[in-house]
Amino acid sequence: MPLNYHIREMQRQDLEEVTALEASCFSMPWKYKDFEETLTNPDRVYLVAEAENPKAGSSDRILGGCMLTNAAGEGDITNVAVREAYRNNRIATALLTALFKIGTERYGMTEYTLEVRSRNTAARRLYENQGFVSLGIRPNFYERPKDDAVIMKRTAAVGME
Asked: Would you say residue 158 has pLDDT above 50?
């Protein structure tokens, strides 16, 4: 049975579940107040992938999420997370595609950067498939566990999204 979900901007009622998603995916997760502040920041947008028909009694309404920050006209992508049970369903790809569309339409962005753990080969492959290339390494950038960050960048022609 296909997984049915839609992508939309995070709303106040999503904060607890988004915070839980973040905690399940990252060793040093953002907190509730961090996500709450994004709701009023005009330079940030956090998208969620919401299940169309979550199982009764399940907390799996929000399947994934990610954030875009407008940093002087360039997109900074962070907090890309998908619940482990729902990975390999192209949710992260759909979230990134929607972020690129918002970046282009709302902010006029053509360039996007992100950081990813050097050991996270699945995420690196995802980003490479989205047109990101490695710019270099930030040694020992991550803690818990210690890891290097791979800095990646994507440049898109205006109107090509």
From this structure: no
Q: What is the pLDDT of residue 160?
A: 43
Instruction: Single out the residue of 119, 59, 125 nearest to residue 92, CA to CA.
Output: 125
Alpha-carbon span 122 to 101, nearest angstrom: 23
Query: Quick one: how far is CA 28 from the chain centroid?
Result: 15
Q: Which residue is it, tokens 């979230």?
A: 95
Residue (of 83, 115, 114) closest to 99 by Cα position? 114
Whole-angstrom CA distances from 73 to 66, 103, 111, 131, 153 are 18, 9, 8, 19, 14
Between helices 91-107 and 121-129, what is the axis angle to 10°? 50
At 52-111, the pLDDT tens digits run 876 655 567 899 999 999 999 999 999 999 999 999 999 999 999 999 999 999 999 999
